[in-house]
Structures are given as structure tokens and as C-alpha cells.
Amino acid sequence: MNIRSETISDYPAITEVNILAFGQDNEAKLIEEIRHSDRYIPELSLVAEVEGLVVAHILLSYIDLVGKETFQVLGLAPMAVHPRFQRQGIGSALVQVGLEIANIRGEAIIIVLGHPQFYNRFGFEPSVNYKIESPFSVPEEFFMVKPLQSYQEMHKGKVIYPPAFEMV
Ligand SMILES: CC(C)(COP(=O)(O)OP(=O)(O)OC[C@H]1O[C@@H](n2cnc3c(N)ncnc32)[C@H](O)[C@@H]1OP(=O)(O)O)[C@@H](O)C(=O)NCCC(=O)NCCS
Hints:
single chain, 168 residues, alpha+beta, Aminopeptidase, 9 strands, 25% helix, binds coenzyme A, N-acetyltransferase
């Protein structure tokens, strides 16, 4: 398996993997919207290849954390592994590489809405532990954060997603 940042020629395969993983095209459309926005970070749109084929994708892009100050922080979404390649460690490997790149970039914190069974292993914790408020009415354990080396206590407040996320 090889993990690298996306290139333009990966776009169709990324669309397909997302449609197959989610059973709908909303996430694939969200990725396209983000790519066209100022929230897109090319090096944090990562693909996993097996034998030269893209089988998984993860996107980290900027969202807002609004407290006394507003910070741009990383939102992890969407993330998709081709159904035939799930539960083989590929999703975990993508998250690990995403965390490493985010740390090297000096990002403060990563925010995700997802399955705690999957994200807890990387050190994600309920956002309430860090005084970070979810914009979604979901149980606390599903809205998680992973503070990075540059995290400071001032990184707290309410999370605001760009309008493009309303489609998922
Ligand atoms: C969730 C997903 C990204 C995980 O990627 P993956 O490569 O299958 O995950 P890994 O093999 O690295 O890790 C497997 C672990 O993830 C968790 N996991 C995987 N799929 C899960 C699911 N649908 N529900 C809950 N937990 C899940 C399990 O804890 C599993 O551990 P186990 O095999 O020991 O039980 C992938 O299964 C997927 O694309 N699912 C459909 C799309 C989706 O739901 N994306 C949103 C992610 S929040």
C-alpha cells in the first residue's frame, strides 16, 4: 500500500470510492466543493493505492472554531475505503499519515464526527473534554477532537462548518 496526496488524475477514482463506501454521491460532491474553496489543503487530501489503484481517500480541510477568537482548524471529512478493502488497516493508515502531516504543518487540532470505536485508537476524545462545542445534535462521544503538538487552551468554542457540509 502507498499513501500520497491526491493529484488531478485521482479525482474520478476518489469519486468512485466515496460513492461505493457511502452508497450515495453526497460525500463525493462535498469533496469537489471543498476543492473549489479556500478551505482546501491539497497535501491533506490523501489517497491509499494498492497495486497502483486508489482504494481509499481521506480529506482534512479547514473549518472554523469560534470562541473569543476564531481559528481555522482541521475537519476530517469525508473518509472512505472501498468496501472490498475495508477492515484491512487501510483507513487507520490514512488517519495516521493525516495526523503526521497535520502535526508537521503546525495545525492545532483535528475535529471529526464519526465512530468512536474507530477514532479513539488515534487519541481522538469527545470534544466536550476540550470545551469545544459541536454544531450537531449527536451524542457527545461521536463528536471528537485530536489535539496536536501546536494545540493550546485558547483553541475552544463552537465549531462552524462551511455551508458545503450541509449536503452530507
Ligand atoms: C470507517 C472506515 C473509513 C474504516 O476504514 P477501514 O480501512 O475499514 O478501517 P481499519 O481496517 O483501519 O480499522 C478497522 C476498524 O474500524 C472500525 N470500523 C470499520 N468500519 C466500521 C463501521 N462501519 N462501523 C463501526 N466501526 C467500524 C472497527 O473498529 C474496525 O476494527 P475491527 O476490524 O478490529 O473491528 C471504512 O470502513 C469506510 O469507508 N466505511 C464506510 C464509509 C464511512 O462510514 N466513512 C465515515 C468514517 S467516520
